[in-house]
Specification:
This protein is an all-alpha fold. It has one domain. The protein is 78% helix and 2% strand. It contains 5 helices and 2 strands; from the N terminus they run αααββαα. Strands 1-2 form a two-stranded antiparallel sheet. A hairpin with a 5-residue loop joins β1 and β2.
């Protein structure tokens, strides 16, 4: 199961990277067309907005799994090894709880928008549920990753206790 989840978040991170390339090239294309006096495509701003959302929610679980997320360690750097473990456990529990709640409520909102047929009316009409469906997916993956971090920290603590006995 762990391998499947690792494959999933790695694949999502690759897609997030490809989306970043799309953003880079589409903005460059828009700048180039304006510089040449040609009207920029009307869809670029709209789809770049969507892309920022998708890139963020597709990449967050991968970043968390690598522990490359932004962390303020002013307090934890001064803690003992046991204190750091407790802080990591509290962090993982709180992260899983918050992301789990956000996953649930964002899923309800997306399903509501889908059932009502809400459309984002801009240059290109797009179903709002299609734009926002990545939010519960991202929060679900974050919840799972926080729980994985929690179990890893607990097992690490048990191994340290067993080694000292």
């Amino acid at each position: 199961m762990s391998r499947i989840f690792d494959w999933l978040i790695n694949s999502m991170a690759i897609v997030a990277g490809l989306i970043l390339l799309f953003i880079t090239f589409s903005i460059s294309y828009g700048i180039g067309t304006r510089a040449l006096g040609i009207q920029s495509p009307v869809w670029t701003v709209q789809f770049n907005e969507y892309s920022l959302l998708w890139m963020t929610f597709l990449g967050t679980a991968w970043v968390l799994s690598r522990r490359k997320h932004v962390a303020i360690d002013i307090v934890t750097s001064r803690l003992s090894l046991g204190g750091k473990r407790v802080a990591e456990i509290v962090h993982s529990v709180m992260g899983a709880a918050v992301c789990g709640v956000l996953c649930y409520y964002s899923l309800l909102i997306v399903l509501n928008m889908y059932s009502r047929g809400v459309t984002d009316v801009q240059a290109v009409d797009v179903p709002k549920s299609l734009v926002l469906c990545v939010i519960p997916i991202g929060f679900c993956c974050l919840t799972i990753q926080f729980l994985r971090n929690l179990t890893a920290e607990i097992w690490k603590g048990r191994k340290e206790v067993a080694a000292h006995e």
